[in-house]
Amino acid sequence: MIQLSRITPIALLLAASLATTGLAQANEKAEPVAKVMQDKPFAQTRVALQISDGSPDKQTLILNVANNLLKFYGPDKVDIEVVAFGPGLRLLFKGNANSQRIADLAAQGVRFSACENTIKAMTKKLDHVPELNPNARIVPAGIVRMVELNKAGYFVARP
Amino acid sequence: MQLHNTSKKFQRYLALTALCAGMAAAMPSAHAANWLMLQGTEPADNAPRAKVWGFIQPMYSKDFSDAFAGKYVPPKLIGPSLDSQSSFNILRARIGVRGTGFPLDSHINYFLLTEFGNNAITNGGKYGSYKPYLTDASITLNYIKGARVRLGLFKYPGAEEGLQGIAAFPYIGYTSVTNQMLLERFPTNGETNIAPQTVPNADMNAFSAPVGAFRDVGAQVFDAFDVGNWEHTYAVMLGNGHGVQMSDNNSSKDLYLYWSSAYLFDKSAKGPFRPSLKMFTWYQKGKRTDAYDNTKEQDRKRYGVGVSYLKKPFRVSAEYMWGQGMIFQGQQNPQRMFNNNKAAGGYIEGGYFIPNTKFELDLRYDTYKRNKGIMKGPTPEAKFNTWTAGVNYHFNKKTRFTLDYSIRKYSSVFTPVNNQLKDVKGLLALQVTAVF
């Protein structure tokens, strides 16, 4: 009985910890660049778009740019990955006013990557893990992802 | 039998048509925007820490009214100084800042706005002097779904003409019903109406306190809900009932209720020019302490219904409003400034955006009946009917030139009052609005 009373708080703590971890892990890890490129075998143009700025105008701009690329080349002919880090990660917060636009672009094959380093830094500031858009995939470091995309032949742009 | 059925159908059709026509006639202005959400909230995770914004409205106006017995009353003079029949003015010059103080948590947003223009907020009139004023200072807490909470000084929920962002208002002047019945004045002890005066230097502004500016200090619970293409919005607010003055001059609190249902023609559209059909109703009730005898209090009640439609190139809106208590008497005849009578009024207006041009044509009819049913005595029934024709030239989305001409037909059942009102004639006004 005594043992049970000791175990209960530990179990609750563990459960809470798992629940928190669950929130942080709700979004899948992004596949390596070489793997994601295979998802767009007919792409003739590959573009990596960086958003690292907290400005609302930049959020709109980057989504406009992605949309314009899709329209110009066609969804099958262009491979676009939006990488969000620093203040730019707000674009990929769950309740962001642009969520519907992000969903529409994701449905056409645009990938959205969220920087794990930024998530950790924001967790400290917020006292909780920020909830992300379900279309966001976690990359260990946003800037490293940009480098990898560039190495793989992606045109890097920071609108 | 068939004839009978057809007749019944026709009767139903007639009844429906009459109802629709009645609604259109009885109700609406302004654009079909959700002003409560536009002014009280920020887009989630998409708002800056601090967005500086504002607008400037330089204007010129000329009144063509005639004097009666060589003297003038306020409707024949240019406000807020009321000492001339033509005047250049900076009607409004507002600058403010709004946003999400801590952008990582969009559950809290704020709104600050100050007025530097020369108008009934900042001009103390005969007994005061020009003084810039803080008109908005509010915080919104967005933690409870369906019940956002806004605290501080801000626009209370109510009639469209007052609630809307004034920079988007297509006319230069308010309707008579809004100006007289809704734009609240706050007299202080010793301030009395001024008898008709000769110009120049008439200066008939009798108030030292700023007008209410459709604002109050208080707490509001509100939110908007989407149901298919419909958006329903509610608001419940308690306030001091003392306008932009950050104090409460009595123990009673004002209650404000608001409901609107808007059909959105384009759900993805945002902002003040969102195409939609909106129906709305509102109610306000409070008490005012008598400025001349502070042991007495008077009820102040206002309510209204309205509708607005916007789908370019057309805009139509209409609203009808009623009020009792604290009915402002104007100064065409020196009496107590306010009484406990009834008043009612409304407007119907429309706009046409000429395709492929920068011109917008506007036409508005407004009517106001003050002291309803009082056929004798010093505070008699008075009617104010105005036609306003206007042109807006939109240089761009944030800058426009407005030209308005109003034909005013004012009258009263009491001869001394009527003598002054019947000589109120046309009013010309030109204004540039620049939003930044």
UniProtKB/TrEMBL annotation, chain A:
Signal peptide per UniProt: 1-26
Keywords associated with the record: Signal
InterPro entries per UniProt: DsrEFH-like
Domain of life: Bacteria
Entries under SUPFAM superfamilies matching the protein: DsrEFH-like (SSF75169)
The protein's name: Uncharacterized protein
From TrEMBL, chain B:
Domain of life assignment: Bacteria
Protein keywords: Signal
InterPro entries: Porin_dom_sf, Porin_O/P
TM regions (residue ranges): none
Keyword presence, NADP: no
Residues annotated as signal peptide: 1-32
Protein name, as recorded: Phosphate-selective porin O and P
